[in-house]
């Protein structure tokens, strides 16, 4: 039987993973701990590991896994910015779940945007305290506003459809614009200067770290609302805080945060928060933070579990690597995959 070790396991991961692993003959062992160079030794004796977004798949972890005979990293997520792709190349195959519910993430982005612009978070707290005052709750209509969507892949396109349903004008930026996307593609400076709302739907790569920094914020409209359901480090959190304090940024909806890995997904309510930037952001009336939960729907969890187990079984039983993350594919166009072979 194929043996796989699941890291950073949360209660909501288990039902789906158990269901599909039992159906398809994969033996799973669940670890609560994150996968890091320090915990990689737990993977000894397993054929595969199943990490999540905040597991640390740096070169040292990858090397340890490979040395211990682990053959496969089966990511149970789409993004892989936590992986040293170069270190994994020719050492250990990496498969991911490229898409599991673009609707889950796009709908969460819109939920956060509506909460922010209609001040639902404030109203919710007020009415629980029998405070029925409307002072300070004035929002604005989305119809007729311009939204700038950065990244028009699976999630970005669903978000565009949702925004169009609200009667918004949609600008988009993507280095690889897609055919038939109902949006006006523009370059980033134009998107920054024309958008009332900016929503990030691109992966975090070496090139777009702090895509939204001081300069970008300076180029934006006063009162802009920024939505980030992609990856925290796309935004320079210090620059965002500064923009909010200067009243330049009118709202921030953050499902992800640069330094989230030691904080998000855990109950830290009994602890002193060491991260002053996050604490200050949370204290702002116009900042809404959710704890990387945009993916968290029943449909998405079921799809993640299904594809993760399918990736493991197809790899070990049929040698298939259709959802491979490969350094050579990313850096050249001459990978063996072009000849319909395995990347290595
Ligand atoms: P996708 O691969 O379908 O689309 C990504 C798009 O971004 C592509 O069109 C690509 O050309 C574009 N892109 C690449 N570099 C870019 C750049 N520098 N600037 C603008 N666009 C760029 O990916 P999908 O499924 O739409 O996911 C997007 C991102 O959403 C993921 O990379 C991940 O970081 C994030 N995500 C967040 C989740 C959450 O729970 N908060 C859950 C799932 C994904």
Tell me what the CATH architecture of the largest domain is. 3-Layer(aba) Sandwich
Number of domains: 2
Rg calculated over all Cα atoms? 21 Å
CATH H-tier superfamily of the largest domain: NAD(P)-binding Rossmann-like Domain
Features:
about 350 residues, alpha/beta, Rossmann fold, seven-stranded parallel beta sheet, five-stranded parallel beta sheet, 12 strands, globular, binds 1,4-dihydronicotinamide adenine dinucleotide
Structure summary:
This protein is an alpha/beta fold. The chain is 34% helix and 14% strand. Helix 4 packs across helix 6.
General description of the model:
The chain has twelve helices and twelve strands. It has helices at residues 14-24, 59-67, 85-88, 102-117, 120-128, 154-165, 188-194, 214-218, 237-245, 276-283, 298-318, 327-331, and strands at 2-6, 26-30, 48-50, 72-74, 93-95, 146-150, 169-173, 184-185, 197-200, 224-228, 249-254, 287-289. The protein is of the alpha/beta class and 344 residues long. Strand 11, helix 10 (276-283) and strand 12 form a beta-alpha-beta unit. A seven-stranded parallel beta sheet has the order 8-7-6-9-10-11-12, sandwiched between helices. A five-stranded parallel beta sheet has the order 2-1-3-4-5. The longest helix is centred in the C-terminal third of the chain and has 21 residues, at 298-318. Helices cover 34% and strands 14% of the residues. Residues 78-79, 99, 102, 105, 150-156, 173-176, 201-203, 205, 207-208, 229-231, 255-256, 292, 294-295 line the site of 1,4-dihydronicotinamide adenine dinucleotide (NAI).
